[in-house]
């Protein structure tokens, strides 16, 4: 078994109208739910489903409480979780108070060991044409779209609605709804008007 990738054209940031270089992007085969994940661990280890479910819930609860109390949490050999914050931009520290600072999400830093082991195990193949034509990206969850968006904005300064639709497989209407939701959540900020609107990291 292998993981899928496909090639996508880089955005024409300078609006040159010329063909842009292609880059590889991971294409998920779907989302593995918690029950299926626990079932796989059960089959591999023999640990009961109820015990695994209880342990997962306990890990999740303790992770949330530790993060809420200001800790960076090392999650086994997987990596480190740290809260990500959102606030308005100011020039002077006195212009903002703690009540104006809110949680934006979580930053995750993969451990070197897990990366090395994953890198040794994973292999890639081009997404089959029949699956590409069915547009599996249209089935992505909002969280998966957000991950793709954040990955994209680490490489490029901004994104527009059309590029977001191409990135996630969303329709025009749904793309606008999700982009506006990300703005409300502090993930994105919007610049420009009309057809010139672009979105940047909030």
UniProtKB/TrEMBL annotation:
<dbReference type="Pfam" id="PF18291">
    <property type="entry name" value="HU-HIG"/>
</dbReference>
<keyword id="KW-0238">DNA-binding</keyword>
<dbReference type="InterPro" id="IPR010992">
    <property type="entry name" value="IHF-like_DNA-bd_dom_sf"/>
</dbReference>
<feature type="domain" description="HU">
    <location>
        <begin position="1"/>
        <end position="126"/>
    </location>
</feature>
<dbReference type="InterPro" id="IPR041607">
    <property type="entry name" value="HU-HIG"/>
</dbReference>
<protein>
    <submittedName>
        <fullName>DNA-binding protein</fullName>
    </submittedName>
</protein>
<dbReference type="GO" id="GO:0003677">
    <property type="term" value="F:DNA binding"/>
</dbReference>
